[in-house]
Amino acid sequence: MPPTRVSDDDSVDPLIRKAAAWSWRLLVIGGVIAALIWLVGRLQVIIVPVALATMVAALMLPAVDWLDRRGAPRGGAVALVILGGVGVFGGILTFVVSQFVSGLPGLVEQVTRSIDSLRAWLIEGPAHLSREQIDNAGNTAIKALRDNQEKLTTGALSTAATLTEIVTGAFLVLFTLIFLLHGGRNIYSFITRIVPVQTRDRVRDAGRAGFGSLIGFVRATFLVALVDAVGIGTGLAIMGVPLALPLASLVFLGAFIPLVGAVVSGFLAVVVALLAKGFVYALITLGLIIAVQQLEAHVLQPLVMGRAVSIHPLAIVLAITTGGVLAGIVGALLAVPLLAFLNSATRVLIADNPDQEAAELEASDAVVIVAHPDTVPPKAGRDD
């Protein structure tokens, strides 16, 4: 009887075969992800405005739908909400800039007095430094600034060169926002026609659930940021800290980057209080910021963010870090909304009962998806 011939596959340990099979699949997946990241980087000028427009649309869509349900023309509702938003934002921005311009000289004067007091303490206090040593340190700092003046000027010029991109991006955000508010559901219905019929309903439900979570996230973040800004701004104004309103505005903007933004903006407020009013006021400002953050974490977040946008803090930190590495501040800003969208969309997409999962998400406090009957995308079985 001839000996049994052992194949090459049979001679390899099963664990090695499985590892090899997983390896080439992971390499393919990694290659696709790398290609997507490269493509997003190349199209960042387009993708970032569209993403920002989607976030703004998530904030404005409930108001447009509310006007639509009460008989207002869809186009008129979109125009009214956008013009109202631009008017409010422009007015607040103008007021903040004017307050910054008027309050900056006072801050400079107080900082100058603080520096003079610090210099006197260094000379007459326990350090017993000589005036020559302090002057040398100041001259060294001035020389460093002069030596790097060319780099600073080049950076300013490069920033000015991006002004055209900023203006173009702003127009693209506005243009995209108009169409998303007017017929975004129909656009989504049209795009999902490329999905096979047997899974089209599930994909559409997943997209609706994801966008619902995005609405909940943006709405909740806006409310939390507003409360943070009002609380911290009021405390700074009562203490007489200069630039209280601009600092409150920074707190408001920083709150849109969870965890990290609040820390950075709060640190700036503490630094201004330290320079302008002294160590005691800086400690009071720090206590005020901690108190507001505790109110946000234990009261506001549980009330306004429901199950649909319940994301583990570790996932938030990793998402912000990844977004910041890949796309800077804009990436950190968009990372958590994207994570909230993918979280709910994936749960519906892989659920055993997608209709029940979507219903549970829509019933949560953070998701309010109210659509006019004429704008709801039809089910797959009715549009084929």
Automatic annotation (TrEMBL):
Highest taxon of source: Bacteria
TM ranges: 21-40, 46-64, 76-97, 166-188, 209-238, 250-271, 278-295, 315-342
Annotated InterPro entries: AI-2E-like
Membrane topology, as annotated: Multi-pass membrane protein
Keyword Cell membrane recorded: yes
Principal place of residence: membrane
Keyword Repeat carried by entry: no
Compartment list: Cell membrane
Keywords: Cell membrane, Membrane, Transmembrane, Transmembrane helix, Transport
Homology family: Belongs to the autoinducer-2 exporter (AI-2E) (TC 2.A.86) family.
Name of this protein: AI-2E family transporter
